[in-house]
Design brief:
By secondary structure, this protein is an alpha/beta fold. The protein folds into two domains: 170 residues, 3-Layer(aba) Sandwich (Rossmann fold); 130 residues, Calcium-transporting ATPase, cytoplasmic domain N, CATH 3.40.1110. Strand 5 and strand 6 form a beta hairpin. The chain starts with a helix and ends with a helix. Bound molecules: adenosine-5'-diphosphate and magnesium ion (MG). Adenosine-5'-diphosphate (ADP) binds next to helix 3, helix 6, strand 5, strand 6 and strand 7. Magnesium ion binds next to helix 3. It comes from Halomarina oriensis. Belongs to the cation transport ATPase (P-type) (TC 3.A.3) family. Type IB subfamily. It is found in: Endomembrane system. This is Heavy metal translocating P-type ATPase.
Length: 307
């Protein structure tokens, strides 16, 4: 592009809350044929709310294997889970803690607490070994999620994120947080697909939840990469990028920075973290996925008019 075209493009971008980092970025944006969206905070609001607390185990199925967990009704499940999550900054954890406080449940300080990124938390609460997290977390601690699987699958097919509570080596509860899909996510995906752009979803969340969200916004099930660990997100982008595709990755979080750097074009959306903005080629000032389309239109428009 000529310096003039670059200047016009970056200026129009800035006026529209689309910040291009340098002139060659405009050309790369024009050539994008694939857009990969992060889920949480990008296609969804990223504001979790606790929607379900379910006790499983002896009370639910009449068995008596879990003697120490006998007192765990719904409030007991929520109390232990929220106490374990008390010191976690993860949005899923904040929703559990807020949910407990709203229900007037008093939390206790965990005796020990450890964050397990991409999995959940491990804590000692009132002398009990407590896990709150996904299937992988429980599997890594040899806890069978079987008794809770039906409940979790039902919640996940509603697009919620289900989390398991394990106490002293046995699953005793399921909690679910729900996030809201952004109002304009579907419009953005539709416009990209009309342009002939492939659209993908990459997330650390589980397959069923990811697919439910993908369906809501119009992304095909075969274009969903779920249960991607934070450190593997850039590898996921790379694998989509392999057959010569020019991939734009759109994300908001710290987790996304390496993937943004790996992609042909990295886009940080909304109030995005400093790390994400640093790694990105384009920063969208607003929190609106249709600005991805706007960015592409600006680059196409200015580069075709001024040669
Ligand atoms: P995302 O890509 O959606 O930001 P993460 O990589 O942070 O997700 O986490 C992936 C999954 O690990 C979550 O969907 C959740 O199942 C589980 N998880 C992570 N942190 C926590 C936590 N503090 N409490 C419960 N579950 C968690
Ligand atoms: Mg995110």
């Amino acid at each position: 592009a000529t310096p003039a075209a670059t200047m016009v493009g970056t200026t129009i971008g800035a006026q529209n809350g689309v910040l291009f980092k340098g002139g060659d970025v405009l050309e790369r944006v024009r050539d994008v044929d694939t857009v990969v969206f992060d889920k949480t905070g990008t296609l969804t609001e990223g504001e979790m709310e606790l929607t379900d607390v379910v006790a499983v185990g002896p009370r639910a199925d009449g068995g008596s294997q879990l003697e120490r967990a006998d007192d765990l009704d719904e409030d007991g499940v929520l109390r232990l889970a929220a106490s374990a999550e008390r010191d976690s900054e993860h949005p899923l954890a904040r929703a559990i803690v807020d949910g407990a406080e709203e229900r007037g449940i008093d939390l206790v300080s965990p005796d020990s607490f450890e964050n397990v990124p991409g999995h959940g938390v491990r804590a000692t609460v009132e002398g009990r070994q407590v896990l709150v997290g996904n299937r992988r977390l429980l599997a890594d601690h040899d806890v069978d999620v079987g008794p809770a699987e039906d409940v979790a699958e039902r919640l996940e097919s509603e697009g919620k994120t289900a989390m398991f509570l394990a106490v002293d080596g046995a699953v005793t509860g399921v909690l679910a947080d729900a996030d809201t899909v952004k109002e304009t996510s579907k419009e953005a995906v539709t416009a990209l697909r009309e342009r002939g752009t492939d659209v993908w979803l990459v997330t650390g969340d589980n397959e069923r939840t990811a697919r439910a969200v993908a369906e809501q916004v119009g992304i095909d099930a075969e274009h969903v990469r779920a249960e991607v660990l934070p450190e593997d997100k850039s590898e996921a982008v790379e694998s989509i990028q392999t057959d010569g595709r020019s991939v734009m990755m759109v994300g908001d979080g710290v987790n996304d920075a390496p993937a943004l750097a790996t992609a042909y074009v990295g886009v940080a959306i909304g109030s995005g973290t400093d790390v994400a903005i640093e790694a990105a080629d384009v920063t969208l000032m607003r929190d609106d996925p249709t600005d991805v389309v706007r960015a592409i239109r600006i680059s196409e428009g200015t580069l075709s008019k001024i040669k």
